[in-house]
Amino acid sequence: MTRxxxxxxxxxxxxxxxxxxxxxxxxxxxxxxxxxLPDTLRFLKETAGLDFNYLNxxxxxxxxxxxxxxxQLSSLEHNHTTVVKARCYDRENPSLPSVIGIWQGADFQExxxxxLMGINxxxxxxxxxxxxxxxxxxxxxxxxxx
Length: 146
Hints:
Layout: E1 3-4, H1 7-17, E2 22-25, E3 30-32, H2 37-46, E4 54-62, E5 67-75, E6 80-88, E7 95-97, H3 106-117, E8 120-122
């Protein structure tokens, strides 16, 4: 059975390596500052004992005051999983750094989030719509979409 590592389990290691990078941690997840997102995720992937070498999925949630991008990571070697989140507070031009350089599987998932929620992933090599046509106006999964 896969064991879940809580945000609190991981927060100490991340805070030691990247001081001030943790916004919140609890049993269910860990929220990191968006500007250090790639560094913290790479640390989770490459650190012995953690080895989160598999990106299960990326999704996004619109809370109206901010967007939250959710990453579920797993270690195939240690059979554990965790959830890491980052927030975007700019509704007009929300953006986060891309993690495609860490996990190639982030490619279509980041494009899907861009297409349906309007969150841009800076550094993504092919940030364009994946479901809707290029002239489509808006992002249909946003709460304020009409």
